[in-house]
Design a protein that fits this description.
The protein is of the alpha/beta class and 373 residues long. The chain has two domains: 181 residues, Glycogen Phosphorylase B (Rossmann fold, 3-Layer(aba) Sandwich), CATH 3.40.50.2000; 182 residues, Rossmann fold, CATH 3.40.50. The chain is 42% helix and 17% strand. The chain contains 14 helices and 13 strands. The strands form two sheets. The chain has a seven-stranded parallel β-sheet, with helices on both faces. Strands 10-9-8-11-12-13 form a six-stranded parallel β-sheet, sandwiched between helices. Strand 8, helix 8 and strand 9 form a beta-alpha-beta unit. Helix 1 packs across helix 14, helix 4 crosses helix 5 and helix 5 runs parallel beside helix 6. It is globular. The termini are close together.
């Protein structure tokens, strides 16, 4: 008798938080569980597809761009339902917006017994049509998994999703992929003063999903103005990069901010820094935060959204008032003046992420809820 198939549907294969999370889950699941897996992508090939194929997972590229452009959603539903009937999965997991809105109804039409939606926080898609679509689409799922308590409240208030359908699973990290900072020798070189406490922030510099790196830059300038020997490493790229570089120059700290662009060695770069900072006004959870903790870094994050749920204030990092660069700067100054405490907070952060946010813990909980043979 063949093992049950879990079919994972996602909008895009480009690298992003949801995609990284899916690969992390599947790398662990294929190693420890006997289930079969298959992953479908609504649009074009790329990004994580190679990682999935390397795990021995069969991949379907539907490339439904023309149907979406012409709004032929009925054709999308039929195509997905046909695939589900042919593959006969025991579970369909739908990740990201269109996979939930169309994939879950298609799975229901095909008679898939277990249908799960993952809501990672598409907080910019809240027009009336999208709210209505989310409300209808969630009716095709037995459960909608959200990555934080804050996101659960947002989904309830914005989309009217019933609380009984929502389950909070904080995102996870494969701690084996990250080398704790104390073990990273030699540390990567940055265009910063050698003596500076190295702050690091990671994320897009785009306009659609704005991580507000300007707040981190202003906080760095405020800390330097107070005599703190600190520098900021910015990992990521996008349309705002030129403006942010100009901001650092205008504030007189161009030599204290190192823009690295997109990089493939992010874990090594994080591990070569001392302190992770974040400034997005609403982060549903923020996988990069727990990745930094897995590198042994304390974290300073805003109180908006769910990212603060990963942090024990004063023990593994600090939580400051959202978008308040002076509040962020005050914690940076405190850390710069007591580097032994920074190291102690980092050790506690590493222990905490190993206790609360490992992929093994996440996958065990998820698959126990599926009750598969």
């Amino acid at each position: 008798m063949s093992q049950p198939l879990i079919y994972h549907l996602i909008d895009e294969f480009r690298v992003g938080g949801a995609q990284t999370h899916l690969v992390t889950m599947l790398a662990d699941a294929t190693r420890r569980y006997p289930y079969r897996h298959r992953v479908g992508c609504l649009f074009e090939d790329g990004g994580i597809a190679g990682d999935l194929r390397a795990l021995g997972i069969e991949v379907d590229i539907f490339d439904l761009r023309s149907d979406f452009e012409s709004r032929r959603y009925d054709r999308v539903l039929r195509r997905l339902a046909q695939t589900f009937r042919a593959t006969n999965p025991a579970v369909v997991e739908a990740h990201l917006t269109w996979s939930r809105l169309l994939g879950l109804p298609a799975a229901a039409l095909a008679g898939v017994p277990r249908r799960i939606g993952f809501e990672q926080g598409d907080i910019y898609l809240k027009s009336r049509p999208m709210r209505a679509a989310n409300f209808v689409g969630q009716l095709a799922a037995q459960e909608v998994i959200v990555c934080s308590d804050a996101l659960k409240r947002w989904v309830q208030s914005t989309h009217g999703t019933a609380e009984s359908r929502l389950k909070v699973f904080h995102n996870c990290v494969d701690v084996k992929r990250f080398v704790p900072r104390a073990l990273e020798e030699p540390r990567a070189a940055f265009a910063l003063p050698e003596s500076a406490l190295r702050l690091v922030t990671v994320g897009t510099l785009g306009r659609g999903v704005n991580k507000r790196v300007d707040v981190s830059i202003r906080a760095t300038a405020a800390a330097v103005a107070q005599g703190a020997d600190v520098g900021l490493v910015v990992i990521g790229d996008g349309a705002q990069r030129g403006e942010l570089e100009a901001l650092a120059a205008d504030l007189g700290i161009a030599d204290r901010v190192d823009f690295l662009g997109m990089r493939s060695d992010v874990p090594t770069l994080i591990a070569s820094c001392d302190l992770f900072v974040h400034a997005a006004p609403f982060e549903p959870f923020g996988i990069v935060c727990i990745e930094a903790m897995a590198c042994g870094l304390p974290v300073i994050v805003p109180d908006g959204g769910g990212i603060g749920e990963a942090v024990r204030h004063g023990e593994t990092g600090f939580i400051y008032r959202t978008l308040d660069h002076d509040a962020l700067a005050s914690f940076v100054v405190s850390c710069a003046s007591d580097r032994q405490n920074v190291a102690a907070l980092g050790r506690a952060a590493l222990q905490d992420v190993r206790a609360r946010f490992t992929v093994e813990r996440y996958v065990d909980r998820l698959y126990q809820s599926y009750a598969l043979p």
